[in-house]
Amino acid sequence: QTMESPKYELVIEAKDMGGMDVGLTGTATATILIDDKNDHAPEFTKKEFQATVKEGVTGVIVNLTVGDRDDPATGAWRAVYSIINGNPGQSFEIHTNPQTNEGMLSVVKPLDYEISAFHTLLIKVENEDPLIPDIAYGPSSTATVQITVEDVNEGPVFHPNPMAVTKQENIPVGSVVLTVNATDPDTLQHQTIRYSVYKDPAGWLEINPTNGTVGTTAVLDRESPFVHNNVYTALFLAIDSGNPPATGTGTLHITLEDVNDNVPSLYPTLAKVCDDAKDLRVVVLGASDKDLHPNTDPFKFELSKQSGPEKLWRINRLNNTHAQVILLQNLKKANYNIPISVTDSGKPPLTNTTELRLQVCTCKKSKMDCSATDALHISLTLILLSLLSLFCKSFA
């Protein structure tokens, strides 16, 4: 039986001399605390609850209410809810609201209208503390929850996602890369899908809006700054005909195979030497190539034909990527241009000819003076330009 108060205070009086009026009296107060036993099972306030939820959404969808005549805020009153039927996919969970003792029923895995538009759950409620032996949970300690799933226009889904293809760089403009495939989860709505390019960093691709065929609008270049680790990434959209339309995004990774389309470059392009140098090894040259093996080194280094009766320099290969320029004699203070060709190992190979500018300078007390050579070079250039200008004017 539920009591109005679990606490009682009794005043006890004791008298001597058999309770005669001439006797002495003493009093004491006794406080009695009564512990509540769990002698009432919790009961749902109604047998059936209703809930509506949009597909693809998670969160609390309904609060289930119960009554319990045991003392509030005790283990005999606090409710513990469990789903005992209708939740094979573990899409639902129920937890107790500690303030109200209500059961908060939540969707934890988004529901799919196209799979099932209705769900029926059987919920049981118990107390934290066990019931006393002669009390049992009855039919009122269970309730049914009817859940209606509302259809939502979902975005199309690409298959697979991400998509991956491998192509040679430099394939002809207009080449087909692949045909993407997206389907609409809203199978009951019979919608159409159109495709568009979402992100194409280098502007190399186009897509047929109807059939999803992706083609090239420019030359694919593996050496482009938009390509990372040989892979170019683009994003595409699939948009359905719903109201409002829904959109899905697909990622395409194009792995680009290398083609020998980059000539090797030479460095450095400037060297200085003293006009009385004892060590005539002028400079070590290196070559690099943006392509991949086997379209790069080993490089072949050659000097272009030297004019004049005597040869002034030669080039010696040091390894696959480096060579050394050596003077065959001391030269007069001046600027010299040495044309050097570098050829890669691609099939077919590519060659690049670069002029090494060699400044022969005067050196005194460990100081290199190249100013005169620069001035001489500039003066000669200006004289040549003036002569050319005069020649043009006379011709005119």
UniProtKB/TrEMBL annotation:
Residue span(s) of domain Cadherin: 1-44, 45-158, 159-266, 265-376
Gene3D superfamilies the UniProt entry points to: Cadherins (2.60.40.60)
A Pfam family assignment: Cadherin
Matching InterPro entries: Cadherin (IPR039808), Cadherin-like_dom (IPR002126), Cadherin-like_sf (IPR015919), Cadherin_CS (IPR020894)
Localization annotation: Cell membrane
A GO term for molecular function: calcium ion binding
Listed GO biological process terms: adherens junction organization; calcium-dependent cell-cell adhesion via plasma membrane cell adhesion molecules; cell migration; cell morphogenesis; cell-cell adhesion mediated by cadherin; cell-cell junction assembly; homophilic cell adhesion via plasma membrane adhesion molecules
A GO CC term attached to the entry: catenin complex
Keywords annotated in UniProt: Calcium, Cell adhesion, Cell membrane, Cleavage on pair of basic residues, Glycoprotein, Membrane, Metal-binding, Repeat, Signal
PROSITE patterns: CADHERIN_1, CADHERIN_2
PANTHER family: CADHERIN-13, CADHERIN-23
Protein name from the UniProt record: CAD13 protein
Annotated organism of origin: Donacobius atricapilla
